Amino acid sequence: MANEKGSLEKIVQIYNDLNKAEKKVAKYILENPRDIIHFSITELAESSGVSETTVFRVCNKLGYKGYQDLKINLAGEIIKPIENIHEEVKEGDDTYLIMQKILKSNINSLDNTLRLNDPEKIINATQITLKAKQLMFFGMGGSFSIAEDAHHKFIRLGKTCNAASDSHWQAMLISLASENDVVFAFSNSGSNKELLDNIRLAKENNLKIISITANPKSPIAMESDISLIAYGKESLFRSEAMESRVSALMIIDWIYVNSAMISKDEALENLEKIRKGIASKRL
């Protein structure tokens, strides 16, 4: 994702080769880099006094696929990484320091996850979810705990929901599913072979695939209709998968809450039924 040279350095290098309108964009970015991270392309165009086409042209000249790509790289350049706030957990750290370090590390992962996922993808994932009759949540190993959490949430939408970690169960569920039903695929690496095989089977059966991985270029991400990125960073005592788990749970919340807001009446009715159903289980 990262380029060898920073975004600001690239702008300086190509500045003299830009036309008058393009220089307005470049100048605004150089003078207000932190604002750009929160700007839409329309806001940057208006602030620079140019058209959106001009902004997009500058992005291309910098070597980026589009405005979102520029924002991601710019954010990575000007926001200090978590290492500047704390070092990884070490032997001798007391409990409070460990708590602080893990907190800041998780916050960093959540911030990066927010930055790396286009809201349009969440909107599309919500629309696909609401159209489906059945939702299936698949994950292997540690990823299955996230699939189970998603299963627990989305059952409140009143849809048929299933979660499976066994590849044979996954294949069976896929074979019995209807067109446009949805498979949520959870895999930190995005490279689990058995899960990938079942995703391909699901595509053959015209099911929709929403994947949540830490690697946007992984095979599972590439095979998905919608690929969402759960950022995680590996450290001495915590694997990347442990950290990206928190990010994945947030992504699931994005889609679930978005879906529940759209189907509010049904979701609230289902929640009330569930509360009444489990009331007898409490003292």
From TrEMBL:
Residue stretches making up the SIS domain: 124-266
PROSITE patterns per record: HTH_LACI_1, HTH_RPIR, SIS
InterPro entries to which the protein is assigned, alphabetical: Homeodomain-like_sf (IPR009057), HTH_RpiR (IPR000281), RpiR-like (IPR047640), RpiR-like_SIS (IPR035472), SIS_dom (IPR001347), SIS_dom_sf (IPR046348), WH-like_DNA-bd_sf (IPR036388)
SUPFAM superfamilies assigned to the protein according to its UniProt record, in alphabetical order: Homeodomain-like (SSF46689), SIS domain (SSF53697)
CDD domains: SIS_RpiR (cd05013)
GO biological process: carbohydrate derivative metabolic process
A GO MF label: carbohydrate derivative binding
Keywords: DNA-binding, Transcription, Transcription regulation
The protein's name in its UniProt record: MurR/RpiR family transcriptional regulator
Domain HTH rpiR-type: 5-81
